[in-house]
Every structure is written in C-alpha cells, then in structure tokens.
Amino acid sequence: MEFVRIGQRVLHVAFRPGRAGARPVVFANSLGTDLRIWDGVIARLPAELPVLCMDKSGHGLSDTGASSIADHAADMAGVMDHCGLSGALFCGVSMGGQIGQHMAAHRPDLIAGLILSNTAARIGTPEMWDTRIAALEQGGIAPMADAVLERWFSPGFLSGQPAAVAGYRNMLVRTPLGGYVAACRAVRDADLTESTRALQLPVACIAGSADQATPTDVVGGLADLIDGAQFSEIAGVGHLPSIEAPEKVAEILMALYEGMM
User: Fold this and answer.
1) How far apart, in Å, do the first and last CA atoms of the chain sit?
2) pLDDT at 1
C-alpha cells in the first residue's frame, strides 16, 4: 500500500516495480470500484512487468476532489510521473477507459498502447446521468446497488457467485457518495469522440456479451472510431471482465503488449 500526494489530493496506489526497463502496465478502474478489481488480471501477468493501479479520486482510499475526466487523467499522470513511468500499456475499464483515452491524447509520452475495456468515447446520455445523479442525491447508492450489479455482472455470475456478488456490492455502496456523484458528473460531461478519433497507437477494445452498461455494439463503435483498433468480445461476461474472466483479459493484454515489443 502506498499513498501519493498529487496537487491537492492524496491518492492510494499499488505499484509493483518489476524489472528495470520493462514496459509498464497501468490500470484504471470503473465507477464505484477500486483497484482490487484488477487482482485476477495482475496475478496472470509476468512478474517482471512493472504494474501500477490507483484508486481514482472519490473511490477506495483516495481523496475526493476530481470533477472531470481531465482531472482524473491528471491524477494518473501525476502518479506515473512520481513512479518514473512512461510508454505504458494502459488498461482501463468503463470510466477508466475514458481516462486512458484522455491521457493518450494529452500525455502521449506516458501512453504507448491502450486496452479499452467496456467503454466508449461517450458513455450514455446527459439525461441518463442526470436521472442517476438526482436519485443518488435523494437516496444514496444503496437503493440502486442491485440494479448496478445487474449491469456489472452476467446472470451466471450473479446466481453462481453469491458471496462474491455480496462483496462487490459492499465495494459499491461503501464508495463515498460525494466521490461517486462527482464521477457520474465527470462521465456525463465527457465526450472524447474527436480526440479519440485522432489516436494513432496500438489499441485493443474489449466487450462483454452480457454487458448492459456498454453493450457490444457500443464498444464496437469505439473500435471503429480508432484507426487499426482490435476488437474482442468475451462471451458470457458483463461490464467487468477483469472480475468474471481475468484470464481472458490478461490474454488480450499480453497479446497487445507483446505486439508492441
């Protein structure tokens, strides 16, 4: 466990230095989750790879305060600079994928390739996010938690892994309400279409066939937006393949990583 102050915020990070000179892998998580969602993927990566994860602002053990995707990207860039990392393969899911898209456009020295999991250049509509934010401000996270979990996970995982589902529900509802709402506003206000369309770097997009939050056609549209982007659909998983199918995510990640050698 490590804490890093970037500007006005203290951020919780997990950093495995790996072998000097090896290309680092950096992970960014989704709305309502923390860095532990990548544990199963990281366990399947070669030990010599430097690996960085971070609880984004308002989640996990990090301070609140970020109000835009640009703010979250600046936090991650600051942590990477602190750790001496550049030229990374960045792997982000959902909101984390938007953070990666922004960083690739604005800090290309830090990002050499992207794994964009269950994400888009624009996620949802402003009206959808406004409705969610109003419900959160009135009742908090808990009343909508079960509906969120149904978007996160496939029906098979929901019925077959009740203890894990309960644990991830705890992760969701224990997210600070202010941090969660601020992150919702950041995603609502983000339209990365033009800057993402201009990206020129290796990209692999991942969809889950049972994802109700960013369905396959949405992720496919993202892949179509980026010149040369690869597209993979993982069968039978929802919005968080890193939890339901970490071996598949690690396989896709390593294929892109090795292609960048």
Assistant:
1) 30
2) 67
Residue among 63, 72, 108 at smallest CA distance from 92? 72
Domain that holds residue 75: 2-259
How many domains does one find in the chain? 1
Contact between 10 and 62 under an 8 Å Cβ cutoff? The reply is yes
Taking 70 as the threshold, does the pLDDT of residue 185 lie above it? Answer: yes
In angstroms, the CA 7 to CA 10 distance is 8
User: Which pLDDT tens digit goes with each residue over 214-243?
Assistant: 999 999 999 999 999 999 999 999 999 999
pTM of the model: 0.97
Q: What angle do CA 253, 104, 42 make, to 5 degrees?
A: 30
Buried b (16+ CB within 10 A) or exposed e, 159-183: eebeeebeebbeebbebbeebbbbb
Q: In this structure, are strands 51-54 and 88-93 parallel, antiparallel, or unpaired? A: unpaired
Residue 249's domain is classified under what CATH number?
3.40.50.1820
